[in-house]
Amino acid sequence: MSNPKNKSLSSPGKHSHPSISTTNQIEQHHQIRHSINCSDYPSSLFSTINQFRLSDLFTDVTIYVDGVPFACHRLILAAASPYFRAMFSYNFRESTEGNVRIQDITPWTMKRILEFIYTGHTDVNYENLFEMFNASVMLSIKELTDLLIKFLYLQIDIYNCIQIEQLATLYSLETLRRTTLQYIVDHFMCLYEKKLFVQLNEHTLMEVLSDDNLDIPKEEYVFLTIVQWVNYHPAEREQYFQSLFKFIRLNSISDSDFVTNSMRNEKLVQKYTTCLRTLKDFYSNNFIPDLLG
């Protein structure tokens, strides 16, 4: 006959429970937060929303550009553009009406702008680059503007460097402006030969002519540049001739006949006594009697 006293009281029975420490460990494990992530979800979601736009589903506002309608979603426009956010948030007529009319943008550009807002990408080329840039700035779509600025850097060449410089000046893009200005200085003879330099405004031309590293074979080209630039629009530009004339480094002109003939006999020089006096002082300082009479 077995003795009950010999049974172990500490042995777990069939229906034993976990210890307190084990229970705490399980509870702690359940309390740990695990992050799950679907990297494709945002792009998939916006792809669906864009399909809604293209199919005119759940749209609540229509943008009209030159009479062409574009059905959109206020929420998406407001999230992408402070311009639209302000329009839909304050006491503008568009905040309560379902129609918005936008000027100074072509339908072609508006289509690309909306494509970027809904998808993050769009097509751009040199022909529509400046129009796209102006539209992105007007609508305050910073991400698109930044991408277009990067694209502008890649597009700088002889035929558009002046236009890009003017755009950079207009929008205070100082780094882009310095880059294009340096390009103009470094390739000035190409601009001169193709007569493209006449597109420069007076301020930029003065900056270019004042650069010691200007790409010209001889100083005579500075004078020729000034005369041709003024004569391109004499009614508007003649007022700057005397100021521009000061940028000619006369001491760098080795051909005295050029000064005596081409420069002195130029009608613009003859018209302004300050320019003639500058030439006379130059000859006097260099002991050349031709213009001292």
TrEMBL record:
Pfam families: BACK (PF07707), BTB (PF00651). Residues 1-26 are annotated as: Disordered. Gene3D superfamilies: 1.25.40.420, Potassium Channel Kv1.1, Chain A (3.30.710.10). SMART domains: BACK, BTB. Residues 59-126 form the BTB domain. The keyword Repeat applies. SUPFAM superfamilies: POZ domain. Keywords: Kelch repeat, Repeat. This is BTB domain-containing protein. It comes from Adineta steineri. The lineage of its organism: Eukaryota, Metazoa, Spiralia, Gnathifera, Rotifera.
